[in-house]
Structure formats: C-alpha cells, structure tokens
Amino acid sequence: MRRAFGVDFGTTNSALAVAEGEGAPRLARFARGGGKTTPTFRSVVYFERSQSGDAVLRELAGPRAIARYLAVDEPGRLVQSLKSFLAARDFSATRIFEREYRLESLIAVLLRAMIVEAEKEIGPIEGTVVVGRPVRFVSARAPEDEALALARLRAAFATAGVEDVVFEYEPIAAAYHYERTLDHDELILIGDFGGGTSDFSLLRVGPASRRERAQGGALGVLGNAGVPVAGDVFDGRIVRAAIAPALGLGSEFRSIFGTVLPVPRWIYGHLERWHHLSFLRSKRTLGLLFDLQRDALEPERLEALIHVVRADLGFPLHRAVERTKLTLTRDEATRLRFAHEPVSIEVSIARAEFEDWIAPELHAIEACVDGLLADTAVAKDDVDRVFLTGGSSLVPAVRALFASHFGVDRVRAGDELVSVASGLALRAQELAA
Question: What is the pLDDT of residue 196?
Fold first, then answer.
C-alpha cells in the first residue's frame, strides 16, 4: 500500500507520522542528545551570527537549536511560537542580524530541518501530505485572517520542499487516531489542547463511518469550534503571578512632575508570552526601561527586568515556568526556581493557586464547548465519549472540567503529543485510497 504522511506543525512541538498498511502510523523520531530520541520536534529555530558579525552563520531548528543556544557563551537569536503569528497581519517579517526573514521563511527553516531528519529514519516524504491546522488560528478575527494563515503555511511548506499539501482540522485528525481500533460506533467530542489554541470537534466515528467513507462519503462531522486559549496562556498566568512581581510588576516610579505612578503593565504583557519578550529589546523600549529604573522606588526590580530583556532570557525563564506547570499536573504544590545572575527568583506555588489563576481561561474553554453543543443541538448526555489530547490536556483542572460536564467514565485521553500527527497520516492514507 502507498505510504501516506501527516505533519502536525505545533506552536510548541511538532511531529511527523507515516501510515502504511493496516498497522498504526509510525512516528518519526528525532535526536534529543545523549543518544536519546523523541517523537516530537521542538518548534524553535536558532540563528547564529558569523564571526564578522554581519551575516547569519548557521540556521538550526528543533532540539539541535536549543542545544546550541544553551551551549554558547553569547547565544544568537532563538525564535519560537511561530505558529501564533500566522494570522497576524501586523507581523510579516523580522530582521535577524543583517537579514530580513519573512514569517514563511522562518517556518520553512523549521520544517526543512524536521523533514530532513525524519527522512533519515522513515525514507522520502512523497505525495500528498496532510497538515494539521487549528479550528481558529491565534489572532484571526475574520475569515480573511484564516485564509492568510493558510496561505502562509502553504508557502512555508512549499519553501521546505513539500508542494502537495492538504489541510485538516487538528481535532478531526485526533478523531482518526482515536477511531483506529474502535469496534463500535460513537458520537465523540474531541478536545485538542495545544500551545496556542484549544480546538473541539463533535463527530460520529466507528465502523459505520469507516464504511461510508470507503464508499466515497465524508466523515460525520457535526461541528467544530476553537478558542485562542491553551498552554502558552497558562504559562503566562504563572509568569504574571509568580515572576513578574520580582521584575517590577506592581512597583512604582516618580515622574518628572513628582507624582508617583505605577510601572506600565503593558511591559509585562510581553513578558507573559515568551515569543513576545524580544519585542522589549528595541532601542526605544530599553530606553524607557532605563528611565523607569532611574526613577523607580524599587530600582533593583527594574534592574532585574532589564537583565532578563537584554540577556534575552525568554527561553530559560519559560522553561522554568513550563517545568513548574508540568510538576503541578502530578503534585499538589511545587517551587518555581529561576536563576540567572544577578536575577534569582524562587516561589512556592500550590496547584489550587494555579487553578485560580487560569480560571478565566477555563471558563472560556467551557463556554466554547457549550457553544458547540448548542450550535449542533447535541445534549451532553448524547455524547458517548470525550477524547482529550495535546499537552495542555494534562492539566488536572482541564480534565476535571470535562469530567464534571460529561462524567469521569466518558472521558478518555492518550498519546497527548502525537495523536494529531498519527491521525493526519491516517487521513492522508484515506485520501490516497
């Protein structure tokens, strides 16, 4: 049987799968150092300046990019969360050293590196490739924004050498993964929680659906919905509550008129999303930060912020936050630790606190699901199964939300980081057939 490929290009992690024959799709594995491999490819790219300082010496992506960034004394430019900008009309390119990179070119660097490494293990990637897309892209406010995001993503794949691309909703891909071993029909709700978006699909799967599709019919999708809330926003809430106060959030400065004013909160909005931290490194913004430090009532806190910005510590800072979030999926409490001389932050965080911080986002997810059920005229009791996937589905409060809505016995999860890539390959296999 012809081989079929699926690519899950994610905000935080990406994955690539191949389906052949009747077995489960095979995930490409990527080197992660120390002789170990992983089925996910970290969605970051790294650019290093040449010794002369006037050109880009090398471009790296994935685990190799992170390893190089952490290994050198004076790291180059690490770029991440590229998927979050696909629908943003106010972001089309950025300057890295002396070269301007369009968004599509940045993504192509990542895709090309992932494909080259994957092909060493699974062979040439040929034919139609099914690529995942969220139900709603981050920053998309109109259908035109969605179309822009898809056009950019298609151009990025073409630049990376993949011309024949078909897009599929990521939660529907997860449904294909879930359905593969199903021996009975079900009405299921799929929840896919990524780094940038949470997406939902309500559909019928099982033997009857497979027979209908084999005869040329369509997958029984009742409806789709999405909300721009997921792992990155959860991380941002930890930054706001536990990191930002040590860097000046809530502190004050004395204006030239002698009035005591709060340090602008918008600065810390960039800090909450680590791919926005580089926006604070502009000459104008750094000048503002130095002025605020000079007039601050607690200048040491602004000094710490300036160090984080100038040293471009977004990645290590958010890695500490991510570790904290993951620990809270297992434990009731933990300590967040971030140290980079002269900055040292250590804060105790209870899971209950974290759940309070993300309560508005949980309400947004709940409203999105309730809206999907209302739009499709499906009652909660009619849903046979809820399948949750994506890294943020591991957050206990997320799972508790669905357990309270549908009952613990109806909620399933598994293969959180690779189910979408697996399902995309199965979808590609179905199209090829």
Answer: 86
